[in-house]
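Lay summary. Proteins are chains of building blocks that fold into shapes, and those shapes determine what they do. In this project we predict the shape from the chain. Here is one chain we studied, written as its sequence of building blocks.
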Amino acid sequence: MYTSTEAPPRSAVRPRLAWLDNLRVALTVLVVLHHAAQAYGPADWWYVRDQPRSGILATLSALDGAFFMSLFFFVSAVFVPGSHDRRGGWTFFRGRLLRLGVPLVVGALTIVPGLMYAYYRHYRGYPPISYPRYFADVYLGLGDRPADWSGPSWPDLQFGHLWFIQNLLAYSLLYLLCRQAARLLSRGRRGARPARPVPGHRSLVLLTLAVAAATYVIRIHYPLDTWVPVLDLLQVEPARVPQYAAFFILGVLADRYGWLERFPARTGWVWLAGGLGGAAVLFAVGSDASCFGAGGVTWPAALWALVDSALCVSLCVGLLTLFRETLGGTGPLRRELAAGSYTVYIVHLPVVVILQYALADRRPSALVAWVVVSGTAVLAAFPLAAALRRLPGARRVL
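And here is the predicted shape, written in a compact code that computers can read:
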């Protein structure tokens, strides 16, 4: 047994952490709820337009955006070092391409163009065309670009909500390159892996300030909700990169140095309380308050970068502690939900958008519409994922 100041031996095989699976399920449900709110809360671009709006849902979306994808990157990164060590570099690379690359390509050629075609028909203002023609001429860009093209880019090809899978694949491949470089540099050297102390309050405060500073600098040129193509392929929101990259790295370190097991619960409870308190203040003020800014060289942009980063760190640390200490139960249903959570992430969005279109002409209030879409989508997406995973060969990918 290692002590509280020692990292666990690298040869140890990590047992399946039920609480981490439960956290992954909760985050997946939160993604569904977040996308259900996009039509009724924030002013961001969305597949369904001109719907009733709610300031509460706008603030909920801002709060979600502050932490939940960073926590997704952290949880995903926890499993990366062990997968690499068990399989070796080449097999790890092939496994990442299979597990992440195949759903990414299939989704970008099936799910996303269907969603974009619906938007094209309803909101672009061009003469109606068939789906095959849209897919070839507009989505893939094989036709001529209209002189009055209203899209943000040409062609309409994009990865939509699959950006997370795409970025996770890129981070995983960067990790592989770093491991290979470290192996070459350390060839011939042997020695025990040095222990690393568990992060405490001081380290977490410094992390918050560092992420906030990097976030503010990047948002001077790339405000929130500004997406750029890296190498004409990778779909990236630069305003969030400091948080995503930091928490992916922290996930790798947490596995390497045993922080998940050794992190003091007392520290986690303090940060959870701080995160919940900050969330309450945000709801009281509203995410659209004039004191907050999406980017630029302004005090509101600096304040939001700090608030955003503080919520990110505090809620990520706090939720990890909450699930480890109190929500570690398991059972057949929870195992099935955990097994299907990745597939739910991939397939839930068409369900959400179809429901939003179905409610568009009925004009319920924003909160009512969100509750209906959220509840129905969650109840439909998990059985759909379970059915897809039972198709021949699907479990190798999903």
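What the prediction tells us: Strands lie at 228-230, 234-236.
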